[in-house]
UniProtKB/TrEMBL annotation:
SUPFAM superfamilies: Oxidoreductase molybdopterin-binding domain. This is Molybdopterin-binding protein. Residues 35-179 form the Oxidoreductase molybdopterin-binding domain. It holds the Pfam family Oxidored_molyb. It comes from Dactylosporangium sucinum. It comes from the Bacteria.
Amino acid sequence: MSFVTPGFGGLRRKQQPDLPPGQYLAHDFPVLSAGPTPRVRTDRWEFVITTESGGQHKWTWDEFTALPSEDVTVDIHCVTKWSKLQTGWRGVPIDTLLEDVETAADFVMAHSYDGYTTNLPLEDLLDGKAWVAYRYDDEPLEPEHGGPARLLVPHLYFWKSAKWVHGLRMMLEDEPGFWEEAGYHNYGDPWREQRYQGD
Ligand SMILES: Nc1nc2c(c(=O)[nH]1)N[C@H]1C(S)=C(S)[C@@H](COP(=O)(O)O)O[C@H]1N2
Ligand SMILES: [Mo]
């Protein structure tokens, strides 16, 4: 004897979301900051790319938001084990910001208005893999989550996505940022569970 429960589309299977190892699904959006939230006014905001020879490329808020932007839907993974699937952002691709920047650097240090830093290989910011994001969920990005603008590098643990980002510094040699200095993994691939040094 078999029982069939009719429902929407028949049998409901419990869908296991596609999460990296050790992660759980968060339904809220946790706020994780090492210090207090800086309030950065957009009329004083600027974004600065500094090359290894000291050359600078700068954008005011109006110049930055006039650049072509993309709407992206991505999964994000925090080293403290929460993940959020299908988050919606608008941002300027790093490719666009680097268009006129001449550099031989292989590494980048992201610098934030709160003094936070995080290091990344330059290639992890290229080819549509990273953005400076300024809208979340169809709203201006809230200060708690890094507004006016934050780095968004969803394929790495979320500590690499510097909130209140102020600029990028091109580096010929790799250097550790804030959490990397404190023992977090230098690269931080959630699919290889690279949480801490030695992972
Ligand atoms: N400037 C700055 N960026 C930061 C941080 C920070 O303390 N300062 N925390 C990082 C960490 S550890 C995580 S997990 C994410 C958290 O982003 P959220 O608060 O929007 O969830 O921001 C990252 N970017
Ligand atoms: Mo984090």
